[in-house]
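We close this part of the discussion by returning to an individual protein. The sequence in question and its structure tokens are set out directly beneath this paragraph:
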Amino acid sequence: MAEVRVPKVSKKEKTLAFRIVASVLAPLVRLLFNVKTIGVENLPKGGYILVGNHLSYLDPLAFAYSVYFHMKRAPHYLAKEGLFRVPVLGWILPKVGQIPVYRSGRGNDEPMRAAKELLRAGQVVVIFPEGTLTRDPDLWPMRGKSGAVRLAVELGLPIVPAAHWGVEKVLANYTKKFKPNPFHTVKVKIGKPIRFDHLNAETMTTEQLSKATAQVMHEVAAIVGELRGETPPKELWDPTQKGQSEIGNFRKKK
């Protein structure tokens, strides 16, 4: 299978192509839901990695709207490469700086290079560390993968934890129950940046990496709890411990 296109890194954050796509998508997003962003004052200047919880297939649109219109930045996603094989969409995504990632991990050298170039250029990369929609029955964030922390440590950049709540009412978790409502509010809340200056990319141990990743995901869960007005679980859901697959729709009947 041929590799999908990796975007060229532009020194200009909001390119003409990005502005055109945003102007087309924004009215469509507003027909689905209304995005409200809280905590913009927490955002650092320059490049950073924005991480968030993953509830619904509409999450990328909710976050993209918040990042572009409220945070005043251009969002660059590390997204599954299958999206880049969809006609038209696969042509557009690289032109607006979106980065394909292979599930297997193989063939990801070029995508990671592009992500690093974007971050070094002072831009924003958005990552959902869970790697897939949450499998937690109560929709709390699951345990995360370590890619975001690895990037942050290697580049000496902050991770900005964020969370959203409400989009699952428009498109439910792992279902096709689509209920657009332009008056329904999806809340996005931004936490305070987390830095890992005490870690070194060359000497970092597996234990340190796991601990740092858990710290990020517990902070995301705490922000989800603030949006929900509830207390998150002390132990985050782990699909492998629950006998669940880590990719695909686990609710589909085999």
